[in-house]
Amino acid sequence: MSEKQVKLSEEEMKTYRVQGFTCTNCAAIFENNVKDLPGVEDAKVNFGASKVYVKGNATIEELEKAGAFENLKIRDEKEQKAEREPFWKQKENIKVYISAVLLVISWFLGEQYGEEHILPTIGYAASILIGGYSLFIKGLKNLSRLKFDMNTLMTIAIIGAAIIGEWGEGATVVILFAISEALERYSMDKARQSIESLMDIAPKEALIRRGKEEMMIHVDDIQVNDIMIVKPGQKLAMDGIVIKGTSTLNQAAITGESVPVTKTIDDEVFAGTLNEEGLLEVKVTKRVEDTTLSKIIHLVEEAQAERAPSQAFVDKFAKYYTPAIVILAFLIAVIPPLFGGDWSQWIYQGLAVLVVGCPCALVVSTPVAVVTAIGNAAKNGVLIKGGIHLEEAGHLKAIAFDKTGTLTKGIPAVTDVITYGGNEDELMIVTAAIEKGSQHPLASAIIRKAEENGLNMNGVSVEEFQSITGKGVKAKVNNQMYYVGSPNLFEELHKTIESNIKENITRMQTEGKTVMVLGTEKEILSLIAVADEMRETSKEVINKLNHIGIETVMLTGDNERTAKAIGKQVGVSDIQADLLPEDKLNFVKKLREKHQSVAMVGDGVNDAPALAAASVGVAMGGAGTDTALETADIALMSDDLSKLPYTIKLSRKALMIIKQNITFSLAIKLLALVLVMPGWLTLWIAIFADMGATLIVTLNSLRLLRVKE
Fold first, then answer.
1. Which of 231, 282, 284, 529 is 20 to 30 A (C-alpha) from 480?
2. Which PANTHER family does the protein's record reference (predicted)?
3. Pick the residue with more confidence: 93 or 293?
């Protein structure tokens, strides 16, 4: 489906939240049922986010009727969610309690009067009917359509057990299956709660000032340009720009950064962040559905609907596997008796194979892991846009970094000032006054430095300002002609540069700094070194990545000498300098040929082609730029690389858990099937193998919630 189609269909589609999904299979059945409703043109179910998108007209009652087979509850997306009923009080679980009580009573009666007595048989039959009636309805419907899934297999097995007189085991299977389904529902809900908790981050109303009046307004009714008043200790309900006040904001909900950030006039602030100490007035810049938080939630929900490659394999496998199990069970039940075996014993073995054959654990092995990992990442300020990108990140062998704005802050700053004649402050005032007329990016670094040192340039008169193309500028200050520019300019002016000054220039250039010289026609007065500052976390992040066996490459348009100095400082394993944007793209392609799985990390604007060419594009600072959110496969919401090793750790763990789940699900089935040979497989063992595998696979996936930095 192209992006255009998705956008178009989502605009036309109405979104509902669904409660009660237990498995991907049920979600698929529900989707087909909704599509069959009169008035519905199309429907799409997102299992991970528990949502259904409906194109056309359908009431909530009709949708609930379509989901009656699974007792699904539907509500409009905009509606506040009802209080969650405690797990043990849920209606579906009450029948399990009644059924279990009847089973225990029947077992006691069986011990008292013997298994063949009418009383325990009636008790077991009642237990089977109460605990399994919804299962039978689904199973018999499927059977009439010759559709074999988990419910069909279970229904055949339980009815078969009753026919051959194994009432007690039939009732036990019903209860264990019901418990297994309830626990599966519980664990899926647990996995989804990470997204639900994101939705509850931002308040649903805010204090708005319109004219002279202040009032509490629901977020849906807040307009762009409204003035929002945020008191200390309150969370922001909308995105906006600070127009009055200064405060520190805890942005952990959006960016995953635990250290609060200072915000003042003209700074951008986000919905869901916590105002810690000052009173802020914020001009609202986006409607509620366009806030960064809404975007995160939407992207995460979409990501959870994306199928991971391993899930596509599992779904394909399950399609052929279930009918194969039915045929195998039939052969086990029929062939041995034809050669003199006991019919009752081999039918029983066949039924047990049906139960063991349920593909529950296998089908649930990937989606639970993907949903859990993506939810955990979102809470830690990392947006992974789908199971495929999660798996790709787990395979990474090399990561290419754009230098400016990624490994460095992207803002040049003055690092050294060396003077050879006159007062340092006076010379700095002269340099800054001259540079005020220059457009060069390094000029802003010098002006900023002068302002930081509290130097006043206002009284300085600059005359005859002239740019010397590619080399610097000259101007008259207090009737003295000064030159500011590269060392090359002064080599031309003075023919030679004194050896001690030349040594200082070479030393600073080797450190990766750009050196600017201030002087007159006769002498050099000062050297000013400017460098793009390294991010505090870059060195540590690169070190961690090298440590886990990932090749790190720095890509930059800088000259070789500067690039080498910075690359050495940060610790990357390879440095590529003098690159144009298309060179970066070609280098990423080359790197992919060598390693298959390669990530590119950039700021998402000028790096878009290289981000797209990498197997995983990682953009930084997603909280502030829509480009980063749109172009990248993974977005780090904070303007900081420290989340990158965590993302790789989480992805590798998710890959490992998915592999463990698939291997374990199949191994348990094989082991149980081997027990058929000596005739040791019982319905008890079969249901425990199936239920146990599903539970263990789900709990194993939930371990991903515990992955921290």
1. 529
2. CADMIUM/ZINC-TRANSPORTING ATPASE HMA2-RELATED, CADMIUM_ZINC-TRANSPORTING ATPASE HMA4-RELATED
3. 293
